[in-house]
Amino acid sequence: PALNAAVGGASNSQHLRGEAADISVPGVPPETVFDWARANLPGFGQLILEPGWLHVSLGQPYRPENQCGQILLFDGKNYRRLT
Questions:
Q1: How far apart are CA 66 and CA 83, in angstroms?
Q2: The pTM of the whole model exceeds 0.85
Q3: Residue 15, Cα to own-chain centre: how many angstroms?
Q4: pLDDT at position 30, please?
């Protein structure tokens, strides 16, 4: 919770329950990891391309159905939804 608060995370973040992770692959651009995840990860809650990493969260039953499958870009200030 302290780290989540320090980075400005949401108080109900899936990170706090082990249902989300921020992923980076050494030597692989985040955009490449993002493209791979979009094509290969079924049933996710969110994929968010952030500066330097990819946020991935679990879908149902950990996230409401109407909030699953979200694909977003985050520029450090604003989220832009792709789907």
A1: 12
A2: yes
A3: 10
A4: 96
